[in-house]
TrEMBL record, chain A:
InterPro entries: CO_DH_flav_C, CO_DH_flav_C_dom_sf, Diverse_Substr_Oxidored, FAD-bd_PCMH, FAD-bd_PCMH-like_sf, FAD-bd_PCMH_sub1, FAD-bd_PCMH_sub2, Mopterin_DH_FAD-bd. Signal peptide: none annotated. This is Xanthine dehydrogenase family protein subunit M. It comes from Hymenobacter mellowenesis. The keyword Flavoprotein applies. Residues 1-222 form the FAD-binding PCMH-type domain. Keywords: FAD, Flavoprotein. It comes from the Bacteria.
UniProtKB/TrEMBL annotation, chain B:
InterPro entries: 2Fe-2S-bd, 2Fe-2S-bd_dom_sf, 2Fe-2S_ferredoxin-like_sf, 2Fe-2S_ferredoxin-type, 2Fe2S_fd_BS, Aldehyde_Oxdr_Iron-Sulfur, Beta-grasp_dom_sf. Keywords: Iron, Metal-binding, Oxidoreductase. CDD domains: fer2 (cd00207). The keyword Disulfide bond does not apply. Residues 20-96 form the 2Fe-2S ferredoxin-type domain. This is 2Fe-2S iron-sulfur cluster-binding protein.
């Protein structure tokens, strides 16, 4: 680790000012990603601004029926908050599918959005990587890319965003609240993370110095029919190869509303609104789900070691939608006979 | 005497950022350390306070050997800076029991032969204590899942599991086993009566 100074901020405005006053400075939440990257010399901030004393660790009901997650609430406190367990169980499942209990006790909700890719070459200073060193090249294209993306990639970078929590947040239409040198603003979740394009060094659309202060969940939580399905190399404590957040609103077997987002496949949580539209108004059957899965992966591109993800993602979509549907006791389960996706 | 012209001295190396006083409450005792901000909590414990029960395995949050309890919650001390823990109460393996009176988990680990080399053990025990404090895991499947942040290279997992189950059992938190993994529905979390022995 390089040397740096540390201050504990006690107010949002002070933190934002402190950030602007120091070149190469960084906010630090739980530190579980930043300190790791600093130990690897991938991140080398010369000044850290601690956020734990900002008083942003609360989780509160909003007047419009939604729920506000403070940016400094830990992932564990969020997953196990009674309102989240009851109204947003998809979020509870996605958080608990990620990392380990120790890490979730440290990791903050704001930090989770900001965590960087797990592409091996991003961590390996000896290899070219456009995300770490713009213009140096991409070692994953033509290299070992088992963990890399298949959707929305560019010829500059094929990395994925590794978060589980963010896949659920994308499906749930979350709004990100930020505060920066130019005041406060909100960002729709789908606009928060970006695709790599020609600037893979930029993971998201935060402006320099902006601080995430909270995440607003809208009232609708799809608490009856949902599934977070995570597929990985071991059953726990590993990043997703492919994950699916599926949420349905059903009337019998009729799909009234649907949400579908994927993790582990792209530079951002991959929400597919066209697929959602295809689902709405249809019967919840495996045939419907297969058609939708084919559509989501229509433009997918494999890079060799990760090409298996295309078929894996299709099957995961079908299974997650099926799991979400089957949570509803009233449905006609005959619709699922002979379906082993 | 001939005059020797000396080349100007090389500039001094860039000064390291100064150390700062950091107050930590560890196992009920207050300590003030004069340390650099990049000192991890793990290094503060081991290198500055001689509390070497907490182990360094991977130093990257991947193994759980460095697990300690902060305000009763288990964390990886290798991915946390000591300066981030002023005002919090830190418990390490040294603070869980005494040599004369081991904590229930420490005793159970011995009774169940829940280690071989012992390197992962302090982290396993602190993690299991955190699991009990959380009160979320009751079944074997849940304990396995919620102990997955601790790796054991000796593969003592089945005995670790039975040690943790015994303590949970004595605390009266056992319900019958259910598969619990991402994708399955959440288990019923209501505590129930302990099985009669
Ligand atoms: C071994 C291991 C396994 C893991 N497995 C998983 C997994 O399976 N699934 C998963 O989803 N995640 C996993 N994680 C990642 C973990 O979830 C993230 O590291 C964590 O969520 C980051 O949160 P943090 O508060 O610790 O962030 P920090 O490390 O504190 O910060 C990360 C970045 O965010 C910035 N930042 C922090 N807070 C703010 C804010 N409020 N506003 C603006 N910028 C901010 C920091 O400057 C930094 O750049 C794993 C991590 C480890 C170490
Ligand atoms: S995929 Fe992206 S992060 Fe990975 S080597 Fe290429 S540029 Fe770097
Ligand atoms: S040493 Fe901290 S998790 Fe391995
Ligand atoms: S007992 Fe040797 S690593 Fe666990």
């Amino acid at each position: 680790m390089n040397s740096f100074t540390f201050t504990q901020a006690t107010a949002v405005a002070g933190a934002v000012q402190d950030k602007a006053a120091h070149d190469d400075s960084a906010y630090i939440g739980g530190g579980t990603n930043l300190i790791d990257l600093m130990k690897e010399n991938v991140a080398r901030p010369t000044h850290l601004i601690g956020l734990k004393k900002l008083g942003l660790d609360t989780i509160e009901n909003l007047p419009d029926g939604g729920l506000r997650l403070g940016a400094l609430a830990t992932n564990a406190d969020t997953a196990w908050h009674p309102e989240v367990e009851k109204r947003y169980p998809l979020l509870n499942q996605a958080i608990l599918a990620g990392a380990s209990p120790q890490l979730r006790n440290m990791a903050t909700d704001g930090g989770n959005l900001m965590q960087r890719t797990r592409c091996y070459y991003f961590y390996d200073l000896a290899t070219p990587c456009n995300k770490r060193e713009p213009g140096s090249g991409c070692s994953a294209i033509g290299g070992y890319n088992r963990v890399c993306g298949i959707l929305g990639t560019s010829d500059q970078c094929i990395a994925t965003h590794p978060s589980d929590m963010c896949v659920a947040l994308a499906a749930l239409n979350t709004t990100v609240r930020v505060s920066g040198p130019n005041g406060e603003r909100t960002i729709k979740f789908e606009d928060f993370h970006r695709l790599p394009g020609d600037h893979p060094e930029r993971d998201n659309t935060l402006e320099p110095g902006e601080l995430i202060t909270g995440l607003d969940l809208p009232e609708k939580g799809f608490s009856k029919n949902f599934s977070y399905l995570k597929l990985r190399d071991r059953t726990s404590y590993a990043f997703a190869l492919v994950s699916v957040a599926a949420a349905l609103e059903l009337e019998g077997t009729l799909i009234k509303d649907a949400r579908l987002a994927l993790g582990g496949v792209a530079h951002k949580p991959w929400r597919d609104k066209e697929a959602e539209t295809m689902l709405i108004g249809q019967r919840a059957t495996v045939d419907t789900f297969r058609r939708v899965a084919a559509k989501v992966l229509e433009n997918a591109k494999g890079y060799g070691a990760n090409t298996f993800k295309i078929e894996l993602a299709k099957r995961a979509i079908v299974r997650a939608l099926k799991q979400a549907t089957e949570m509803n006791q009233e449905i006609d389960t005959n619709a699922f006979q002979n379906s082993n996706p | 005497m001939s005059q020797v012209t000396q080349a100007p001295l090389a500039p001094p190396p860039v000064a390291l950022a100064p150390t700062q006083p950091v107050s930590l409450n560890i196992n009920g005792q207050a300590h003030t350390l004069q340390i650099a901000p990049w000192t991890t909590l793990l290094d503060a414990l081991r290198e500055y306070l001689d509390l070497t029960g907490t182990k360094k395995g991977c130093d990257h949050g991947q193994c759980g050997a460095c697990t300690v309890l902060v305000d009763g919650k288990r964390i990886n001390s290798c991915l946390s800076l000591a300066v981030m823990h002023e005002d919090s109460h830190i418990q390490t393996i040294e603070g869980l029991g005494t040599e004369d009176k081991l904590s229930p988990l420490q005793q159970a680990f011995i009774d169940h032969d829940a280690f071989q080399c012992g390197y992962c053990t302090p982290g396993q025990i602190c993690s299991a204590q955190g699991l009990i404090n959380e009160g979320k895991a009751k079944t074997e499947a849940e304990v396995r899942e919620l102990m997955s942040g601790n790796i054991c290279r000796c593969g003592a997992y089945s005995n670790i599991l039975s040690a943790v189950m015994e303590v949970l059992n004595n605390e009266g938190l056992i319900i019958e086993d259910k598969a619990w993994s991402a994708g399955a529905t959440k288990p019923d979390m209501a505590p129930v009566e302990p099985p009669k022995k």
